[in-house]
Amino acid sequence: MRKRGFVAALAVAWTMVAAAALAQGSASPTLDAIRARGQLNCGINTGVAGFALPDSRGVWQGFDVDLCRGLAVAIFNDVNKVRFIPLSSSTRFTALGAGEIDVLFRTSTQTLLRDTTLGLRHVTTYFYDGHGFIVRADANVQRVADMRGATVCLIQGTTNEQVTADYFRSINTPFSPVVFERTDQAAAALAAGRCDSFGTDASQLAGVRSTMPNPAQWTILPERFSKEPYAAYIRRGDDQWHDVVRWFTTSIIEAEELGITRANAEEMRRTSVNANVRRFLGVTPELGQALKLDTAWAFNVVRAIGNYGELYERTMGESTAVALPRGPNRLWNQGGLLYALPMR
């Protein structure tokens, strides 16, 4: 029995040594570079309300912008240690692959071909959307089938180009595409009457409508023609960086599930007896140790940007100019699709 006990103890010790060696060998070149330069380089949209748009002072605001800020907090515990790099749809993946940015939070749909042919990886879904169309409210258009022969603004390098062409072809309805590099260019063309409609993801259409001189003059048609799940993108070959971005994204969803907010995070960290809450807020250290981040990284993130629901309502919720209902971006136990993987 002593011999069996010794062998078992030796096996446990060997497992611990192997795990430590593996951890030491899993250094992240991306994370190391970020820490060495002292800031995160984050790719965002060139401008769409709700996701990324400069305010009157030139300060970037929006859902994706705050995801960048939150990731900087997870790494540095400093919301300001991030550099925003606006990228068009056609240049975003090239810039990421070339190392100009560390991560892309830019309304980017996860697709099989993007995941397998670009040398990139998408991480965790943080937003569910679908392709739609916006038209003038007085255009007497109730559905896309009424848009026969219409001129449609589209953005180059997006899934929306293909979705639009495929759908119009499927209903045997001709249309004329007008392609632009940036959303603001397409929106300007729409407002000027160069296009009868603009086709892109519905959340971005809501953002475009909110910036029109008279938003009530525009209607987003109710039909949806695709699945557009957004995720952060990173370069392939850096598993530790993938883990950091993945679990950071998961953390804001988990915070909402656990009822942790910017206002109560400190109190819950001090008083909660819930094991999941204590683990999440860094009262016990294992999550930070596993990701090689500060023990209180998730607590710091929630204190800085809030949980998912707070972030959503602040940037594009129904009390904002974008006024976009959460729909599928509600939690799974509230009728939505958002579901945090267990953080344990």
From TrEMBL:
Pfam families (UniProt xref): SBP_bac_3 (PF00497)
Keyword Methyltransferase: no
Signal peptide: 1-23
Ranges where the Solute-binding protein family 3/N-terminal domain occurs: 39-268
Matching InterPro entries: Bact_solute-bind_prot3 (IPR051455), SBP_3_CS (IPR018313), Solute-binding_3/MltF_N (IPR001638)
Record bears the keyword Isomerase: no
One GO biological process term: amino acid transport
SUPFAM superfamilies membership: Periplasmic binding protein-like II
Similarity section: Belongs to the bacterial solute-binding protein 3 family.
Protein name: Amino acid ABC transporter substrate-binding protein
